[in-house]
Amino acid sequence: MAYQVPLLIGGKMVPSRTEQWLEVNNPATQKVIARLPCATEAEVEAAVVAASAAFVEWKETPVPERARLMLRYQALLKEHHDEIACLLSRDTGKTLEDAKGDVWRGIEVVEQAANIASLSMGETQENVARGVDCYSFTQPLGVCVGITPFNFPAMIPLWMFPLAIACGNTFVLKPSEQDPLVPMRLAELFMAAGAPDGLLQVIHGGKEVVDLLLVHPQVRAISFVGSVAAGQHIYRTGTDHLKRVQAFAGAKNHMVVLPDANRQQAINNLVGASVGAAGQRCMAISVAVLVGEARELLPELQAAMAKVRPGIWNDPDAGYGPLISPAAKTRVLQLIAEGKREGADCLLDGSHVRVSGYPDGNWLGPTLFGGVTTDMTIYKEEIFGPVLLVIMVDNLDEAIALVNANPYGNGTSIFTASGAAARKYQHEIQVGQVGINVPIPVPLPFFSFTGWRNSFYGDLHAYGKQAVRFYTETKTITARWFDDEAVADPNMSIHLK
Question: What single Pfam family name could you report for this chain, choosing any that match (predicted)?
Answer without folding.
Answer: Aldedh
